Amino acid sequence: MHKPLFNIFAFLLLLSACQPSAEDLFDAGVAALERQEYQQAIEYFDRVVQKEGDYPDAYNARGVAFFELEKWDEAIASFSKSIALDSTNYKPYFNRGNALMEKEAFKEALYDYNMANGLDFNQPDIYYNRGLALLGLEMYDDALVDFDMALKGNPEDTRVLFNKSKALLGNNDPLTAIATLNEVVRLDQRNASAYYLLGVTEMSALGNKEAGCTQLKMALSLGYTQAKEWIDEFCEE
């Protein structure tokens, strides 16, 4: 005996109503991202774009998950798709720039940071990351401008100060670099990298062996093993 067509259509309608929407899947993917369950997040975002191909936020979020898994090329492809769907959002440009930085594609990353900055010039992280790209390109004057812009929001951001000191050294300004590094270690007394760079700069730029050795020994005590080579060569009597 055949079932009435009405009942079949009603069943199909009910089945359709039980399926999660693209928005539900997107929210589940974001929740998985927040739990650091990146592969599961990707699976949710894949389902989103299967349901609704024109969903730039899903491609951007999927790119973030790929980035966290250190799958740079897959991340770049997802961010690029997000940009193709919506070129007015700074986030996928910024995120793609970050993935390109991991590949040391500094010139391409700089383009993306410029685009992100043009869409939203109030984001300190854009200035900081663009400064890193400029540092990689040895464009030290421009890097310093961006690091100073990033410091306007937080003058005591030791990440920015440390990389500003690198740009200062690249710009042949060791005295200001040393002053900046001293500020870093004042703010973060366990910053081994800053102690190391401070010690090397004191010795190589100023010939200040005593101060340099003190900083290098501090770096070594904090686990910065590269300092040992300098200590063995220059600091042991």
Automatic annotation (TrEMBL):
<protein>
    <submittedName>
        <fullName>Tetratricopeptide repeat protein</fullName>
    </submittedName>
</protein>
<dbReference type="InterPro" id="IPR019734">
    <property type="entry name" value="TPR_rpt"/>
</dbReference>
<dbReference type="Pfam" id="PF00515">
    <property type="entry name" value="TPR_1"/>
</dbReference>
<feature type="repeat" description="TPR">
    <location>
        <begin position="56"/>
        <end position="89"/>
    </location>
</feature>
<keyword id="KW-0732">Signal</keyword>
<keyword id="KW-0677">Repeat</keyword>
<feature type="repeat" description="TPR">
    <location>
        <begin position="124"/>
        <end position="157"/>
    </location>
</feature>
<dbReference type="InterPro" id="IPR011990">
    <property type="entry name" value="TPR-like_helical_dom_sf"/>
</dbReference>
<dbReference type="Pfam" id="PF13432">
    <property type="entry name" value="TPR_16"/>
</dbReference>
<dbReference type="InterPro" id="IPR050498">
    <property type="entry name" value="Ycf3"/>
</dbReference>
<feature type="repeat" description="TPR">
    <location>
        <begin position="22"/>
        <end position="55"/>
    </location>
</feature>
<feature type="signal peptide">
    <location>
        <begin position="1"/>
        <end position="22"/>
    </location>
</feature>
<keyword id="KW-0802">TPR repeat</keyword>
